[in-house]
Amino acid sequence: MILYPAIDLKDGQAVRLLHGDMDKTTVFNDNPAAQALEFVEAGCEWLHLVDLNGAFAGEPVNAAPVEEILKQCEVPAQLGGGIRDMTTIANWIDKGLARVILGTVAVENPDLVREAAREFPGKVAVGIDARNGRVATKGWAEETDVMVSDLAKSFEDAGVAAIIYTDILRDGAMKGPNVTATADLANAVSIPVIASGGVSSLEDLQALKSCGAALNGAISGRALYDGAIDLQQALKTLKA
């Protein structure tokens, strides 16, 4: 199971939000590339990047810090937020991004996800952000009537590399992940699932690890910044 350190970008800084609320922001580093390098030097195998402004704007906003991270860090990175057309997808992959995360368009334009997955095999993930089992879009600002499992299953034959499942009510709250919902999703689809939201301790990581091989990894942000999780120790735990 892979641990993905999260770098959420708002106004050019590395931040964390509480429950996805842009007004409840904690700035952890005003140099996102330096933060990324800290994670890499600690041994992480991947980086998880989110353009928070881009998620609301519907287009890349924090491109400069993302590009700097890609230049300075040798590990692969995945990025979500504001990626909603083939041109943007192609541009990011050309700049060295290992994986794009498509969230809002997965609901609004699923054909784009399928086209991108065909064009860029292994480089397209679907981000499913949920509140009470229903998918939220546009930076979590809009809730739909689409159920998580239904959306995930609709991409079974699309060739996407992973599903990144975020429980919004757990995100940034340091209250633990929704292990049950994550396990249910991971076992319902053949696509690898990455858990996000609420991972705040080694015990949380071990609980997710118990979900089995269907769970590809877990994303953690605030707990790494606050020191609740020691990255090097966590990496050892997941490889044990």
What can be said about this structure in brief?
The chain has an 8-stranded parallel barrel with strand order 1-4-5-6-7-10-11-12, surrounded by 7 helices.
Describe the structure.
The protein is of the alpha/beta class. Helix content is 37%, strand content 30%. It is built from 11 helices and 12 strands. The protein has helices at 32-41, 52-57, 63-72, 86-94, 104-108, 110-119, 148-153, 179-188, 202-209, 222-226, 231-239, and strands spanning 2-10, 13-18, 21-29, 47-51, 77-80, 99-102, 124-131, 134-137, 142-147, 162-167, 193-196, 215-220. Strands 1-4-5-6-7-10-11-12 form an 8-stranded parallel β-barrel, surrounded by 7 helices. Strand 2 and strand 3 (21-29) form a beta hairpin. The mean pLDDT is 92.
Looking at the structure, what is the overall shape? globular
**H/E series, N to C?**
EEEHEHHEHEHHEEEHEHEHEHH
Strand content: 25-35%
Spans with pLDDT under 50 lasting ≥5 residues? none
Q: Strand order of the main beta sheet, please?
A: 1-4-5-6-7-10-11-12
Radius of gyration: 16 Å
Supply the key terms.
8-stranded parallel β-barrel, alpha/beta
Question: What is the secondary structure topology, with strand pairs?
Answer:
Elements: E1 2-10, E2 13-18, E3 21-29, H1 32-41, E4 47-51, H2 52-57, H3 63-72, E5 77-80, H4 86-94, E6 99-102, H5 104-108, H6 110-119, E7 124-131, E8 134-137, E9 142-147, H7 148-153, E10 162-167, H8 179-188, E11 193-196, H9 202-209, E12 215-220, H10 222-226, H11 231-239
Parallel strand pairs: 1-4, 1-12, 4-5, 5-6, 6-7, 7-10, 10-11, 11-12
Antiparallel strand pairs: 1-2, 2-3, 7-8, 8-9
Helix pairs in contact: 1-3, 9-11
